[in-house]
Amino acid sequence: MRAGILLHISSLQSPYGIGTLGKEAYRFVDFLKSSEQSYWQILPINPTSIGDSPYQSPSVFAFNPYFIDLDFLVNEKLINNSDLEKIEKFNNSEKVPYGYLFETRMEILKLAYNNFSIYEEMYFDFKTKNRKWIFSYGVFCFLKEKHGYVSWNNWPDEYRFVNLAKVEKIYEENKIEIERIMFVQFLFYKQWSDLKTYANENGVKIIGDIPIYVAYDSVDVWLNPDIFELDSKKLPKSVAGCPPDDFAKKGQLWGNPLYDWEYIKKTNYKWWIERMNQAMELFDIVRIDHFRGFSAYYSIKYGNKTAVKGKWIKGPGAELFRVIEKNTTRLDVIAEDLGFIDDDVVNMLWETGYPGMKIFQFEISETADATIERFKNFSKNTVLYTGTHDNLPIVAWYNKLDKKYKKVLKQFLGYNGNKVHEAIIKCCYQANSKIVIIPLQDFLGLDEKARMNIPSTLEGNWLYRVNKNDLSKSLTKKIKEITEEYGREQSVM
User: Fold this and answer.
1) Alpha-carbon distance 401 to 458, whole Å?
2) Considering 36, 52, 209, 336, which one is annotated as catalytic?
3) Model confidence band, residue 492 (pLDDT cutoffs 50, 70, 90)
């Protein structure tokens, strides 16, 4: 029985506008260790694009360059202090300035390639090991910049329709510019590997997160059209989403191209094996987003404005994971099994043996007795959250409850105080779930301004940042005391 905290890297403090893999990340690991936390859960670490969502990336294999720590690069003599004088500082900023980062960050990072000889051997090994994606990603980014960052389907045909031979030719003709892009990826990988090693040495495991789908405007779709449901013009036939429910009256129209599972099966799921192999190298545990989409996925005709009209289509099921398990050294997965769950999803989860997720905000029934029964019946093989990046912080959620549900919640918690977030966290810690993950915002008792994301919206998301005084000694002590009180500290198995 263990516990952890959910906080994305972007939410850490740094003087450069966004959290990085620098000293504040190491400080957060120290905070987790001192608080007796066993897990640090993050969101996807892939590059972001329009909308700044880590779930809509130009590559599912590449890394977000914004997370590279600039001070570490200065210390390693890859860039100079004078290079940093060119960019604006954002000390203790409350929101991530994505627009400014897009305009300035890559140009600073590319300067590091001028001194790549410092890590020449390591860089060569990195390129060799990641050859299947790193060169094509470098070429894709080069072409995106060349064409004013428009979607690849608006490029001239000579670049829109390509094969590996064409990609290699573009690389050879523009080698230095593309190498600069690839070297930036190496810098992330090195800093990430060092941070993960430090976390593991201090008893903290990293829970990563991978989206089930990929963005249409990505190197993955551009170069691998056969594994997606595309027409002869490489446009999607249908796209992904969720049907209408109480959470979204018109459903959720994500717009991602759907997989051609029949074709992927013929390849023995090669692309997915490569993806999961990389994920298990990067993380200790992997949370797979929208896991139910492997049982059956919701298909919406391309061009529809909402997700109201769609249909469920059977997916690969547990077979996919049986094949992956035979082709990986290990597979440690948390299945995000939220949403519309039918018997097929339940059976798939049972076949794989992966723990599913429970969200406190979704488990409050109409009566306190029914709510108690729900919590009693949680399987041990679950991971319990107060909320995720898609939910309101728990205090904001509580404040929006009507009087009836507030009364039910108070009866269930036996609560009459003024710190409802602490009562809910303690309740979660007492549940039967083998892992409990609490967003940092909930430990801090923050309101809706600290929400990370509102699903199906493009603007104003992924902005939350920790205040430099938030990770205090008093908070550390409080979390440690709760963790030890309910037997979820690091030393307890």
Assistant:
1) 26
2) 336
3) low
Which alpha helices (DSSP H) does 242-362 contain, by range?
261-266, 270-282, 318-326, 343-352
Instruction: Please state whether the predicted TM-score (pTM) of the whole model is above 0.90.
Output: yes
Q: Which amino acid is residue 356, in one-letter code?
A: G
CATH of the domain at 428: 3.20.20.80
Which range, of 77-91, 191-205, 365-379, averages the lowest pLDDT?
Answer: 365-379
Domain range for 436: 2-69+196-485
Long-range contacts of 365-370 (CB under 8 A, 24+ apart): 365/408, 366/404, 366/408, 367/408, 368/408, 368/411, 368/412
On whether residue 122 sits in a domain, the answer given is no
pLDDT digits (tens, 9 = 90+) for 75-85: 999 999 999 98
Q: Tell me: the pLDDT tens digits for 291-316?
A: 999 999 999 999 999 999 999 999 99
| Active-site annotation holder among 177, 363, 390, 470 | 390
Q: How far apart are CA 229 and CA 239, in angstroms?
A: 9
Is 128 domain-assigned?
no
| Continuous segment of H or E residues that includes residue 480 | helix 473-485
Cβ 354 vs Cβ 335: under 8 Å = yes
- DSSP class per residue in 223-245: H-GGGB-B-TTS-BSEEEEE---
Closest CA to 55 of 207, 232, 212: 212
Cβ 218 vs Cβ 275: under 8 Å: no
Where are the alpha helices (H) located in 267-377, listed in sequence order? 270-282, 318-326, 343-352, 368-376
The DSSP annotation for 135-185 comes to HHHHHHHHHHHHTTT--GGGS-HHHHS--HHHHHHHHHHTHHHHHHHHHHH
* Length of the chain as a residue count: 493
Give the residue with greater pLDDT, 456 vs 397: 397
218-235 residue pLDDT tens: 999 999 999 999 999 999
**Catalytic site includes residue 332:** no
Residue 103 lies inside a defined structural domain of this protein: no
Q: Which residues contact 260 (CB under 8 A, 6 or more apart)?
A: 226, 227, 228, 229
Alpha carbons 129 and 366: distance in angstroms, whole number:
54
Tens digit of pLDDT for each residue in 315-359?
999 999 999 999 998 899 999 988 778 899 999 999 999 999 999
- How many separate domains does the chain show? 1
Annotated catalytic, 289? yes
CA 202 to chain centroid: 23
Cα–Cα dist 368/404, whole Å: 11
298 located within any domain: yes
- E strand or H helix at 403, and its extent? helix 403-413
Residue of 209, 289, 337, 442 marked catalytic? 289
